[in-house]
Amino acid sequence: MRILLLLIALFAASGLHAAERQHVLWSLKGKTNTVYLLGSVHFLRPSEKLPAAIEAAYGEAEQLLMEIDMDDLDPLEAQQATLELGMLPKGETLEAQLGAATYAKVSQQARAIGLEPMILNRFRPWLAALTLVQLQLVKMGLDPNSGVEQRFVARAASDGKEIKGLETLREQLAMMANLPLAQQREFLLYSVEDTERASREIDELIAAWREGNTRQLAELMTEGFEKYPDLYRPMTVERNRKWIPPIEALLDDRDDYLVVVGALHLVGNDSVIELLETRGHKVVRH
Question: CA-to-CA distance for 222 and 45, rounded, in angstroms?
Fold first, then answer.
């Protein structure tokens, strides 16, 4: 599972000239190694090619560190955790939790992407949100198996590169499941709104990531915090702070690493990049 709110929100319209192009990619030097930090897009079209700078960072890395250890995921355990944390207790419904007006909006979006709304009616709001976003992205021709992480997972298996995780799948799911009901409702409505926007602008949005427009990404992060501070904080800033110690620990390793996390974790205030710089690390943009 990915944090799909970040997947949509990482994009913004690009204003960079090709000659100025950089990527959502940084590096910092350890005692004897290099650690690359890459902001990912979790869904891409199969035809999308990764920029050469990103390919080079992967090529130099002996090991990868991702949000979760994706090469060792057990599908049955993932399904069980999702059901445990994402389904409502017997006798409760999504419609009752949301109210008639909000449920009508969710139902309209579900039908628009070919999903019968009743399928969502046993889901907790956070799981309904992720389901709607994922299906909408697939309908637009984007493929989770073509996202940055999945491409590297497939290649790492054949290249003999180990993948480690910053957190577990259950921790990611629990982060969503532990949100208060009011914030889960917020997340669901926000996901529906973002899905509608993504339908109109997805080509420009992917181009923005490709060109590394971090200024626009940071502006979008600020917008999200202003609109939904209680939702963004646990999904971004709190996780960023938890990730700093394990990332710093890589600097004592001999292997080069490629750290791959959602792009919004690497831009704006309290980003992983800013937190590392605050701690005295020299982080270089590529």
Answer: 27
List, in order, residues 6 or more apart from 72 with CB less than 8 Å away: 163
Query: Could you tell me if 3 and 194 are in contact, meaning their C-beta atoms sit under 8 angstroms apart?
Result: no
Q: What is the pLDDT of residues 112-157, one digit of tens each?
A: 999 999 999 999 999 999 999 888 888 888 898 899 999 999 999 9
The residue ranges of the chain whose pLDDT is under 50 are: 1-19
Question: Order of strands across the sheet with 257-262?
Answer: 162-165, 63-66, 257-262, 34-40, 25-29, 284-285
Rg of the chain taking only CA atoms, in angstroms: 19
On whether the CB atoms of residues 136 and 113 are closer than 8 A, the answer is yes
Q: Quote the pLDDT of residue 10.
A: 41
Query: How open is the CA angle 49-208-227, to the nearest 5 degrees?
Result: 135
Task: Please report, to the nearest 10 degrees, the dihedral formed by the alpha carbons of residues 149, 152, 158, 159 taken in order.
Answer: -130
Say if residues 22 and 218 touch (Cβ distance below 8 Å).
no
Cβ–Cβ < 8 Å for 197, 224: no
Domain ranges in the chain are 4-285
Alpha helices in the chain (DSSP H): 4-9, 52-60, 75-86, 94-98, 100-112, 125-139, 148-159, 169-177, 181-211, 214-227, 229-232, 238-249, 272-278
